[in-house]
Amino acid sequence: MRYSVTVPDQEYFDRNIPCRTACPIHTECGRYVQAIGISRDEEAYLLARAPNPFAYVLGRICAHPCEDACRRGKIDEPIAICALKRYATDRHNLGGGHDPARKLLPPAAKRGKKVAIVGAGVCGLTCAHDLALLGYSVDVFESAPVPGGMLYLGIPHFRLPREIIKMEVDNILARGVTLHTRVTLGRDISFAELRSQFDAVLLATGLNKGRELNIPGAHLAGVYNGIDFLINANLGYEIELGKRVVVVGGGNVAIDVARAAVRLVNESSGATEPLAGRHGASGAEATQPEPAATESLQPALDAARMALRSGAEQVCLVSLESRQQMPAWQSEVHEAEHEGIVVENSWGPKEIVGSDGVVTGLRVRACVSVFDENGRFNPAFSDEEKVIPCDTVVLAIGQQADLSFLGGHEDVQVTPRGILKIDENLMTTAPGVFAGGDVAFGPRVLVEAVANGHRAARSIHVFFNGKSTKTVLSRFRIFNNWEMPRGFLGIPRQTMPVLPANRRIGIAEVELGFDEAQGRAEGLRCLKCQVNTIFDGSKCILCNGCVDICPENCLRLVDLTQVQGDERYEALIRKRYGMSAANLSPGRAGAIIKNEEKCIRCALCAQRCPTQAITMEALEQQEREVFE
Ligand SMILES: Cc1cc2nc3c(=O)[nH]c(=O)nc-3n(C[C@H](O)[C@H](O)[C@H](O)COP(=O)(O)OP(=O)(O)OC[C@H]3O[C@@H](n4cnc5c(N)ncnc54)[C@H](O)[C@@H]3O)c2cc1C
Fold this sequence. Notes:
There is one protein chain. The longest helix has 18 residues, at 446-463. Helix 3 packs across helix 8 (81-90), helix 5 (55-61) crosses helix 8 (81-90) and helix 13 (226-234) crosses helix 16. Strands 4-3-2-5-17 form a 5-stranded parallel beta sheet, sandwiched between helices. A 4-stranded antiparallel beta sheet has the order 1-18-22-19. Helix 9 (122-133) links the parallel strand 2 and strand 3 (137-141). 43% of the residues are buried. The two termini are 37 Å apart. Helices cover 30% and strands 21% of the residues. The chain is of the alpha/beta class. The site of flavin-adenine dinucleotide has 37 residues, from helix 9, helix 16 and helix 19.
């Protein structure tokens, strides 16, 4: 094995590892996937855990932008990176008290500054975790009876078991974070008090108010707001659903089974009073939905699946979007249908129909397009209408922030979208008051909230005149005999085993996780993007051997004049020949153009090269951040 150290073009190498680049916390996804493939489970766990105090949670429900970027997806299907994170974390039970990640993150000496964090969601707790490790005194204030934010309040048990949340939150609290539950900023403690008692404040209050819909009938009894419905169901409060519930849209509910399911949940939460009431019966004002309302359909799907589990006989989900346009993950839509939920695409709610003040149906009209020619949310409808009979309507059309706690503090500005205005360091317009997560960016995903938590902690540290210095240690590992695992291209993406539909009752988790054979097989599918074919132009004799042997046809040998006009190569050509490609005479020089997306790192080009002009090299980089 040889090593070299100069990194000529960092951006090129980053681009070549698209999974890591796509991850908001730059998880070394490829490396943990590969470690699982060769049975190095603890190494895989440490790689997955290093940037992420919620690695167990995200192994189950991450939006996995890494998979969308995965190059294997261009060949057949992306690596099941999220499922492999679960595989790695499932093999390290934090509850057993042994967390090998502790050695990664040793705590610093105490620093004498106090930080208040409002909201014990993923953003707030990640920030608390980092600040505690940096030696700050951290108090987290949470209005719910339990920490976890939407992990606990929004996402149902059957997608995320509560022991997993508890285990991860306990592990964060064990770093020296003080948690105060049932404390609502603006009610139990004022913003002024908080600001006077702490040296800095992070607002990570999320979006816990559902958007309402300004259509006739929205005030009828039997109309629920999706977020209220999920919060109440997840905290174990009794919800009276009908038999046919439409989640917006709609469906049918069997009240007896719903009660039984709700009681089952109640036992584990120990909850005693509802957090938010059903708004329909109290006749709350309906407001016009804003464009952001369709940004995420996950709450709609979760509400629909939760309704079915609560005992509804028929649950129907009405979506403005066509099946292909639905923002929900297709796998989740598939599971919902598998459980008996009917998805009605391309219909929009027009009126909630009622009799004697109670819902009897939802009138919908056919949606012909959701976005206008400028790509803005602006649905257009045809004259076609129908009424879907139902007795419960759950409106799950988006969320908004409740910023009532700001009352009178005009120095913390709010954007026209109703979220907190922040700068690039996540500081609001008031010095010392920071904001992160959904309340600062609008509805997003968990891994972004983790990234915000880290960023907020770093910014708060710098605000206190602390310093953070990042160093990156780089080296190229040059392989003499590089080989990909035998048959790796033939291995199909492993399918997540799931509980049979007839056993999906109550809180039972639907996804069961890969077994060992699946984990190893999936790990071996990785294309190992960190390994690059490095071409040494001074040794190349332009024999075309590499081009001939490449099984993926990803190499082309061309005259240098043919790449003129291509900005990517122009700078390189100028550097080497002192002139633009346009001024070179034909036949003077050649170039090998490589399609990185198609390369499968098989190394046949390197083996074939008669002059050893091609080497297989992995760029290994280790980032170290020192906080002073
Ligand atoms: C139903 C649903 C399903 C989702 N599914 C997924 C998924 O599968 N994958 C994914 O990646 N993302 C998912 N998301 C998105 C994800 O949950 C959010 O992006 C993430 O939770 C945002 O984290 P946060 O810390 O900013 O806010 P939150 O998680 O919302 O946490 C905010 C916390 O602040 C507390 N709070 C609010 N106001 C106050 C106050 N005044 N005083 C004290 N405390 C307060 C709240 O009670 C809450 O605990 C889902 C969202 C929902 C609603």
